[in-house]
Structure formats: structure tokens, C-alpha cells
């Protein structure tokens, strides 16, 4: 059975309008404080029974692919041992996943910072009743623990969120499919990727018993999802969570087009819920006050909307026309100076969605734009089939555009300018090198590249933005100094540095800036949402080579020599992509195959 090809079909029936299910009460804060004997290093961290084989534990080698060795026991004096009292053996099957506190005890202890958790201290919020009895084997227990202790902290990227660290672990107590899916993601997230010198884009997951275990658990989770999802507000909540988990697992293992397909379907469910809450215009305040859908889940699906538009958007113009006026009153009341990164991020993402929906609605409403010189045909290799999209900066709005829409475009551009002005004081006061600065800098380069995309919609000349492109790569190189990017197999659920970098590598014809972007994507080797840094580096290097065949002695590339991606054919089974590009001037076509 091909587990990664399995899809979820979510059908919400007999949902009662206005029905609200009370939110579960906040669960207790539990602290990670393992009380373990010596054995070896990794067993102490993961509470795996050691088989005491030296120099390496066979159980670690079998499941995790590595063993980090033994520690030298630290013996206490007889007097100290007597003070500690007699040691009594406990059944490991009844040991709590996290040490229990008295019901009325305050919860003050937190995890200590590590290189992976340098945002500060993390509270672990889990139900008291989750113990090792809840898991069928040590492999289940170990994988779930790995998600809690490691994966949940890297998934948010540079921006902290309670979704992965709190909401989903809490929900896993009452919902089996969530616990099984988190177990699968925890097992998969540490499998590692293959990096080959001769094929930079080849980055498949290392096949191991742990990988097979992850696939098995994912298949079980999908079956549980189908059985669990029912109508009503609780069914909606679970349906959206199921979509998030499927997208996360499929993206993590490199099935980007399956993840994209679920992302599009899941966002449609979310939009239908929005429309049902208010058929005219759903405001931010109305959404955030809903007890049926957690605030963080709402924010995640709004970011999914951006990912779809940045990747491949199969939705018709009617959808974009509905969504381009989202929270218009909120944008009008945008503050002159932002007071927090979260506030500035909320407004930036709102403006990005509004402007992107405007561009998409305009291009899809004009038949004359659907011509071969400005469209990319994508055979997705999924049930969605073949779609046509307008790539960024290759969508040139017609000069015959009605005056009313040109005025509307100017107003959207003004929103981005207002955001940059309001953001400048907050950004300038961040301490460079800190995690907060890295997050703030990422927002800044996202805003700048989005502004270039807007401005290029009325002009195909991108060479005037070289100074912006240079700033983006200078800043991105500093962002990747953050310890988050030290992980070889880093995966974050949201868009990060890859999207701005691949846009600059695509748009900029200055050879040094372009090569720095490609080199940085290779060095980062990360996956962010649907974007794979290695794949984007390979595609952009190939296009750069074709365009630079026409470079003159001064380093100038004529406008007609610029290439655009004309055709993509995806083989999801083999995880390969046949990419065809076309020179704008001569319409000469070239093709290559990218693997991942």
C-alpha cells in the first residue's frame, strides 16, 4: 500500500448554524524532569530501555540510526545513598510521560534553553493522564516524546506559536488521530535527508526502520481521521486539525504536491466556514472570538492562503474577488507605528493576502492575459490535474485596465508603503543577532519582495530593483546565522527565507547577487511549507545558466534573453519534476529534470 498517496476526503454534514461546543478547560502545566539511571546518553533523554551493548546500544542503532554512547557513572557515597532512601523498582509501563504534580501545586519549572530553543523558556502543557500506558510500544512513546521535545519547537520557525507546542499535544489526549499523527511526525522529523555532491537537489529521506514506522503510523492516523470526522463545530475543528497534520507530514517527507492538494481542499473548508459565519464580510474580531476554531488554527489557515498563492493557485477569479477585500476596515485603522512583531506580522500577512487576491482576480478576469507568453502550465500529478497559473513578475496588467481598477491597485500599493513606514521604528530598535531580530528581519525582506512583485505588475523591468535585491541577500545571510538553521533536516510549517531568496534568484540578473542567493539556499538546506531550498536552488541555477549565455562583456543580459518557466510536469511517485523554460524574446525552449 502506498501510504503517502492516500488522501483524506472531508465531508461536513448536518452542521447546525451557530452551534458552539464549549472549549475544553485549560489543562495543567506539566514539567519535563526525567528521573533516570545512567545507561547511555540518548536513552537517558528518551527513556528507552538500554540493551547495554557496547560500544553502541543496538536498539538505538536499529530505530534511530545512531547511538551517542555511554556516560561514566557518577557514584555517590554510601552516606548519600542512605539519605536518599531505598530505591524501589517501578513498572516502566506505568511511568508518566511527564512527572505528575499535586493537583493544587503551582507550575513554575520550565525547560532550560538549548541551541534549538533559544527563544526563551518553554512551558510543557500536557494532560496529566498521558503516561507510557497510552502507547503501544517504546517506539510509539519515543516518537511522541521526540515531537514534544524537539519537533514542536522547530515547526514554528522564527515565530513562536502555541499550536504545535500546546494546542495539538493537549488535543492528542482526547483525539486518537492527533496523537497518532504527532507520533508519525515525530518519527519522521528525525530521519534525515540524503545530500549528494553530484545532485544538489537530491534530498530524499534516509530509508530506515524509523521511516517505515512513521509511514505505518501515518496510515493509521489517516484511517482514524476518516472515522473521527463528524458534522458540527467539533467536527470542523477536527477537520481543520486533520488537514494541518496531513499537510505537515506530506511536506515533511517531500510529497509537496499531495500536501498542496490537501492545503487547497482544507482552505476551502475554512473559507466555507468563514462565509457561513458572515456571508458579507468576516472580520478579524468575529473570527478570533469563535469558540469552535482555535485562534492559532485560524491564523495557520490564513497563512495557508498565502502559501497557495505563492506556489500554485488553481482557484477561479470569483474566489479572489471575494477575498481581496478581507478586513478592509482593519487595514484602514492600521496604526502609524507598530508596537510588537506579532502585530506587524498580522498586518503584513493581511496586506499580502489582499494584494495577491487583487492581482489574481484581475489577471483571471481578463481573457487576453491567458496567452502562452505569460502563463505556466502545471501538470500537478494529483487529482487536481493540469492548471494554468500566472507566475510572479510575469503577470503584466494591461494598459487598457479600467481606471477604477488602476486606482484600486494604487490603494493596495499604498497599504504596503504604510506598513513599511509603521514597521521601521520597531525594526530599527531590534538587537541584531537575536532571535527577535531574525524574525523582524524576515518580515522586512518578505515585505520588500512583495512590494517588488506589486510594482512589476505594471512593468516588466526588474533591473531597477538591484539595490533591494542586494539588501535581501545581505539580510538573509545574517538571518541564517540563527541557531535554528543549524539543523541539516530543518522543516518549518510556514514560509520563511526560501521564498524571498528564490524570488531574488529568479528576478535579479546581477550575477553575484544571484549566485549568493543560490548558495545560501544550498547552505540552508531547509524545507519551509511547500518550498524546498535545494529544489529552488537547482531550478534557479539552471535558469541562470541559460540566461547568462546571452550576457555581454559588461555583464548585461538583454530583456529578450530572460527566461520564464513555461511548463511543469510532476511525477509524485518518483518525486521528480520536468521543468521547461522559454526565452521571452525568441521563445526557444529548454527542459531539465529536478529530483528531490
TrEMBL record:
Q: Give GO terms: molecular function aspect only.
A: DNA binding; DNA-binding transcription factor activity, RNA polymerase II-specific; zinc ion binding
The protein's matches in CDD domains, at most eight in alphabetical order, are given as: GAL4 (cd00067)
Keyword annotations of the record: DNA-binding, Metal-binding, Nucleus, Transcription, Transcription regulation, Zinc
Keyword Ion transport part of the UniProt annotation = no
InterPro entries, from UniProt?
Answer: Transcr_Regulatory_Proteins, Zn2Cys6_DnaBD
- Region (Disordered) location: 82-102
Protein name, per record? Zn(2)-C6 fungal-type domain-containing protein
